[in-house]
Amino acid sequence: MEQLQVQEITVEVRRNSRRKTRIGLGFDPAGHVILDAPVNATLDELEAVIVEHERWLRRRLESVQKDAVCVAAPHYVSGELLQYLGQAFELQVKEGASAVVVRERNAQLALFPGLDGIRGEIQVRLVNPAPEAVARRLKRWYLQQAKSVFAQRLAHWQSLPWLSGGLPSWRTRFMRSQWGSCSYDGIIALNTHLIKTPLRLIDYVILHELCHLVHHDHSRRFYGLMAAHMPDWQDRSKELDGFMPVLLHE
Ligand SMILES: [Zn+2]
Questions:
Q1: Which of 19, 43, 67 is the last residue of a domain?
Q2: pLDDT greater at residue 114 or residue 195
Q3: Whole domain around residue 32: which residue ranges?
Q4: In a shared domain, residues 85 and 63
Q5: Is residue 73 part of a domain?
Q6: 190 C-alpha to center of ligand 1: Å?
């Protein structure tokens, strides 16, 4: 699979021998930008198409984000809500030795009015808890959680028949416009922000990228493979669209 990077937008190029002249641009369910191109189109031509449609691409991404929950830029102060594994946690900033502690509310407290929907609190302790420092500490914490949770979920898929030789190389990256990617040589990148979404959606993105190890495209065979291992992948894909706003802020 070819990939092009133009102004922070990653584009997957799908060469199609039946296409003669037209170049098609669109999104796949996981939020990848897909470019359908004739076999003989040059990289310069493809890049020109992306640059020409850059504003449209960004508008499309924005409209998906607008349909989803509105999320304001965080200020990293106590009382703010944070997302973690698809649940809301209240941020508590405290002075102290550097640490991040998750405290889940017990089931009884969760029954009190006004507290429902909030799973608990995430306490950030720092010697000097200025908002920028809290932001940096939280980002580091999300990254640590992402690495450990993604590793567990990848291990969960290890029984897939095409992974008998072992799991592929993978890494996490903070990305703005996509949840994951799979390079032509089979290296998987997972968006660190996925740690803010439920496990079932993390699984969906991981499976999507793992299926690319078999089919490096978004062909019928690719989606057939997805459906064989995750019959409700389309529901999960729609659900994931609702989490687009978590990509807006770090
Ligand atoms: Zn894909």
A1: 67
A2: 195
A3: 2-67
A4: no
A5: no
A6: 12
CA of 167 to the centre of ligand 1 (A): 18
For ligand 1, the distance from its centroid to the CA atom of residue 33, given in whole angstroms, is 9
| Helical pair 199-211 and 131-156, crossing angle rounded to 10 deg | 60
Query: From ligand 1's centre to the CA of 47, what distance in Å?
Result: 19
Question: HSE-up of 48 (CA within 13 Å, CB side)?
Answer: 7
pLDDT averaged over every residue in the chain: 85
Q: State which amino acid sits at residue 35.
A: L
- Side chain identity at residue 173, one-letter code: R
Report the C-alpha gap between 18 and 40 in whole angstroms. 11
98 and 30 in one domain?
no
Q: Is the pLDDT of residue 68 over 60?
A: no
In a domain, 89, yes or no: yes
* pLDDT recorded at residue 172: 96
Strand order in the sheet with 99-104: 81-84, 87-95, 118-126, 99-104
Written as six digits, the tokens of 234 are 């389309």
CA 125, CA 142: separation in Å to the nearest integer?
15
For residue range 1-25, what is the model confidence (pLDDT) as tens digits? 678 877 777 788 888 776 666 777 7
pTM recorded for the entire structure: 0.70
218 Cα–ligand 1 center, Å: 6
- State the average pLDDT over residues 83-87: 90
> pLDDT value at position 31?
59
Predicted confidence (pLDDT) at residue 114 exceeds the cutoff of 60: no
Instruction: Supply 152's token pair.
Output: 């567990």
Instruction: State the pairing for strand pair 9-16/24-27.
Output: unpaired
Tokens of 180: 């994951």
Is residue 40 exposed (0-12), middle (13-18) or buried (19+ Cβ within 10 Å)? exposed
